[in-house]
Design goal:
It contains 2 helices and 5 strands. The chain is an alpha+beta fold.
Length: 80
């Protein structure tokens, strides 16, 4: 298991936000719908980047966090 420190100043798009719902609506999806298609991920990523976001975050454990530039995360040591 690895732990990372994410800078607090990153602009993160909330996966349950109205902005995300609008992006999904443009693709014909309802707010709760998603796809495992690479094209779906590419469109979400592109739209979020165009809006100035550094990644997407969700309070749902299964969704987690996605950073568009992984160099912005710093690996930290966990206590033994």
């Amino acid at each position: 298991v690895y732990a990372y420190k994410i800078p607090a100043n990153l602009k993160m798009l909330d996966a349950q936000s109205s902005e995300m719902a609008a992006i999904k609506a443009e693709m014909g999806f309802k707010p709760h719908e998603y796809s495992d298609s690479p094209m779906y991920a590419a469109v979400i990523t592109n739209e979020a980047k165009e809006l100035g976001y550094d990644g997407v975050i969700s309070d749902k454990r299964a969704d987690g966090l996605v950073l568009f530039d992984p160099r912005k995360a710093k690996l930290v040591d966990l206590p033994e």
